[in-house]
Design goal:
The structure is a single chain. This protein is mainly alpha-helical. 2% of the residues are buried. 84% of the residues lie in helices and 0% in strands. The protein has a domain of 53 residues. It contains 4 helices and no strands. The two termini are 35 Å apart.
Length: 83
């Protein structure tokens, strides 16, 4: 790299690092949000709470709908990313 070019790019390097880190964190959060294992855990937890009488069947239905919609949204997003 040319020393003159480096001199002008040097002040922006920390900003580039922060932007790259933010992108990595956002990608990981997105993967975690649409993780099938997380959805399965949520559904199992809701079912065990229903069996214990802590929540109603309506609550279980709402949790199932929310969990499966996040899973479906994640699959749609993944398909869009591959295109």
């Amino acid at each position: 790299m040319n020393p003159l070019t480096l001199l002008f790019k040097l002040p922006l390097m920390p900003l580039r690092g922060v932007i790259t880190l933010a992108e990595l964190i956002a990608d990981e959060a997105e993967r975690e949000l649409h993780d099938p294992a997380r959805v399965r855990r949520e559904l199992e937890e809701a079912e065990s709470k229903r069996a214990a009488g802590q929540i109603s069947d309506e609550d279980v239905s709402q949790i199932e709908e929310k969990a499966t919609s996040s899973l479906i949204t994640g699959q749609t997003t993944a398909k869009d990313d591959r295109s």
